[in-house]
Amino acid sequence: MCTESCIAFTGPFSHLENCPICGHHRYDPIKLRTSGGRTKVALHKFVTIPLGTQLQALWGDPSHAEKMSYLQNEMERIFNLLHEHGGQIDVFNDFIMGSDYIHAVARGDIVKDDIVLMISMDGAKANSPIAGYTSGS
Predict the structure, then answer these.
(1) What's the rounded Cα separation, in Å, for the pair 106 and 58?
(2) How far apart are the first and last CA of the chain?
(3) Separation of alpha carbons 71 and 51, rounded Å
């Protein structure tokens, strides 16, 4: 991964030694130079956590499985509140009380037993266009 989080050196970028956006080195230049180019140590790594096994573990424990039902139970309560109060909610104390989430449930985009995953990608540039770079370059 680029030290500035511009790109991950995978797919069309896997062969690159420098970031095509900022020009930063992919590998530690000192270790690369002192080893005669044989030792390639990435300057920055991206750690992944396999989501499937984490969710399976949560569902496998009865107390965690109950907590995983929070969204479904809370949405039922919120829809009852909306019905009782003419479509108005006085106190917003959770993201699921927001109109985007409520409308997604009402449209059927989020249904019973769905798992909603929220991700914070501070510093990531997932949608940054790479000017002038194509996979054939």
Answers:
(1) 27
(2) 19
(3) 19
Among 107, 77, 108, smallest CA distance to 94 is for: 77
Contact yes or no for 66/59 (Cβ under 8 A): no
* Token pair listed for 91: 């106190």
Q: Does the pTM of the predicted model rise above 0.85?
A: no
pLDDT in tens, 4-36: 989 999 999 999 999 999 999 999 999 999 999
Total residues belonging to the chain: 137
Cα–Cα distance for residue pair 71/7, rounded to 1 Å: 34
Bridge partners for 42 per DSSP: 27
* 132/137 Cα distance (integer angstroms): 9
Joined together, the tokens standing for residue 84 give 């009782």
